Amino acid sequence: MADTLYPRFVLPRLKEALGDTPVVLIHGPRQCGKTTLARQVGDAGDYIYITFDDDVAVAAANADPIGFVDDLPERAVLDEVQRVPGLFTAIKRAVDRRRTPGRFILTGSANVLLVPKIADSLAGRMEILRLHPLSQAELSRTGSQFLDSVFGGAFRNRRWERLGSGLAERIVAGGFPAALARDSSRRRTAWYRDYVETIVQRDVRDLARISALEALPRLLTFAAAQTARLINVADLAAPFQLSRPTIRDYLTLLERVFMLEQLPAWHMNRLSRLIKTPKLHLVDTGVTAALLGLDATGLTQDRPALGQLLESFVFQELRRQAGAQDEPVAFHHFRDKDGAEVDVVIERGGRVAGIEVKAAATATAADFRGLRKLQAAAGKRFANGVVLYDGETSAGFGEGMYAVPIRALWEKLP
After folding, report:
1. Which tens digit of pLDDT belongs to each residue from 152-210?
2. In the chain, where are the structural domains located?
3. Is the CB of residue 50 less than 8 Å from the CB of residue 77?
4. Under CATH, what is the fold of the domain 11-130?
5. What order do you get walking across the sheet with 401-405 strand by strand?
């Protein structure tokens, strides 16, 4: 797999943005394919390439940001630009002097949207695209109709081949290209562990000077055990001699380097009985499984962990596929005080759809309890509800409700 170039869903949007916007930032976790994508486009468009993983380039840019940018040719790819935050003001100055579409392609492994001064400096001049690790649909080169089908209700009754043990193998393999290029599960796990260490020792250290850097890998492991659960800062803080506010700050740092994500609760002001605590999801189930010491066999045998990681796996797949959508797609979860829940709530074009995830090989009417509550809460905005399960049959369960095998997420629908 090492030399394989997979189609990325965000590529058409990147090309479109370069046609009318001076600066395009591709950001996402380190090693997810940002540089490959930027160079793929840049090599075709005669861009010069500079990486700020090179300490000499960092020193030069920090010493004279304006001179550094002024000396660049007409088009440039600037890789890992978060390591030189002073460059954003210099880029703004250069763009204001010559507002040519597609002048700069930036990549970043830290979320500049969480640093308002940086994001605001290029407001109106920069389009930001999020790149994720590879989706199952990108890996299989099938594209995906799943989100369109969720909102269109185009799930026909049909038979599928059950994934079975192959599902756990996909979960623990994750989506990082460099990990997938390795031949064995053991070698992929080693890559993921080294990856976490690199993020903590380099990227987090670049962002902030924190007193307990050694606590971050342990915190990330505890967070891995909470993936797909409501965030509980007290539980995360318990093993450490650190305050809850400090743990919250550390979670924000890990969020800034795309190691974890908070999935907000879906709610409406008139519905007071809804839980508003966000859920926690790690960046990729390959990372999560490695942190928890789980291979495919261990995950299959640990049903609670399988349920959690499967939910994160589905959420991540949906997030990755949303990059191909023309309309903005927002993700939430739903839970009320009676315990009814929906794992993933999707909003697109003013409509709402729900996805419930089950590791079981069968789906029953009881599995739609949370989806029916969401349907009642959303009213006319509700599109469809889907229970994704590891079974063999897609079938309707009443108006707007479907049970669909998980592999329909990335396989072509009839």
Report:
1. 877 888 888 888 889 999 999 999 999 999 999 999 999 999 999 988 887 887 777 76
2. 11-130, 136-409
3. yes
4. Rossmann fold (3.40.50)
5. 158-159, 393-396, 401-405, 382-389, 351-357, 341-348, 329-335
